[in-house]
Amino acid sequence: MIKSPSHDQLGPPHEAMFLILPYLPLFELLSMTQVCKSFRDALKDDILPWLNIIVEKPLNTRFSDDFLVKIMSNAKGRLRVVALKNCFKITDEGLLQVIASNPLISKLYLQGCRGLTIEGVIEAVKLHTKANHKLKNLAISGIYNVKTEDFETLCYMMGINQMQIKQGKKNYYHTRRELSSFKRESQPSIDVDICPKCGEIREVFDCPKDSCKGRMQQQQQQQKQVLMECCRGCFLCVPRCEECGVCTKDEELGEAACADILCLNCWLKLPKCSFCNKAYCNQHAYDQQSLYPGGFLCSHCSFHATQSSHY
Ligand SMILES: [Zn+2]
Ligand SMILES: [Zn+2]
Ligand SMILES: [Zn+2]
Ligand SMILES: [Zn+2]
Ligand SMILES: [Zn+2]
C-alpha cells in the first residue's frame, strides 16, 4: 500500500517557491507563514518579500497601527512601497512611526484611510523630505478635509509642478482602482487635484469620450485663464459611468442593480437580473445570486423572493 507522506516527512519547500514570495499580496504572504515552519523561518530572514507592502481587502478592515508597525518592521527599514487601501484603523501615529523608520519609501498610497488626518499626512511627508528623501507618488483621496493650502504644501514638498498634473497623464474614472503602485512614472505625482468645477481637493477625472476631448472651456486658475476640457471634474461635479468612465450628463443611462452609474452602452453589454433587468457593474458582480446556469437575481430581488416563499 502506498502511504502518503506525513507532515514531517515532507522536505523543505522547493526553492522556486521563494522566488514568488516578493510578488504575493500581503494576505497571501501572511497565509504562507502559517503553512510550515520552514516558510516561516525563510520569511523571517528574507526582507525581499516585505519591501512592497500592499494592504487591501480582506485585510484592510482589521489592519491597525500595531499590526502596521509589526509587519513593516519585517523590511528592516528598507520599505519602498506602502499601499494601504481603506485601512480605517490606521492613525497618524502609526503612519509617522513607519515613515520615521523607513527613509527609502518612494510610493505612499493611503486612499480611503479615514483614520488619518491631512495634518498627519503633511507631517509624514515633511519628515520624509527633511531627511532628503523624495516621495515619488502619494495617494490621499478619501482623506477628509484637505484644503487647497494642504494640497499646495504637499505639491511643494514633493516637487510637483501643478500645471504638469493637468497636462500630464490622463486620469480616468473607470481605471482608478487599478493599483498604480508599480506603474513607472517619471514625474512625481499625487492623486488629487483642485476640481475645476467646485474648487475642492478631490480626485479629478478626464473624459474618455471622443466628443468631449475637443470641447474646451476657459477657466480661471491661479490668476490665469487656462483652457480646460469642459467635463474635467470630480465625481460629484461630473458623474461618470462606472465601467467606461464617460461623463453621463448627455448620456442615456441603464438601470444599475448597485449604487453605481452605467451608461446605456455598458449596460447593454452586462448580464442583467432575470426579474428586474438591472445590471451590476463588474466591480459588484459578486452580488449576483445565481439562479440557474446563465441567469441570476440581484440581491434585492433575491431577498424579496426568499421573503415571499416563506408564506
Ligand atoms: Zn468638483
Ligand atoms: Zn459606460
Ligand atoms: Zn465628457
Ligand atoms: Zn433584480
Ligand atoms: Zn457597482
UniProtKB/TrEMBL annotation:
Transmembrane segments: none annotated. InterPro entries: 4Fe4S_Fe_S_CS, F-box-like_dom_sf, F-box_dom, F-box_LRR-repeat, LRR_dom_sf. This is F-box domain-containing protein. Residues 6-53 form the F-box domain. It comes from the Eukaryota. PANTHER family: F-BOX PROTEIN SKIP28 (PTHR13382:SF16), MITOCHONDRIAL ATP SYNTHASE COUPLING FACTOR B (PTHR13382). It comes from Datura stramonium. Coiled coil: none annotated.
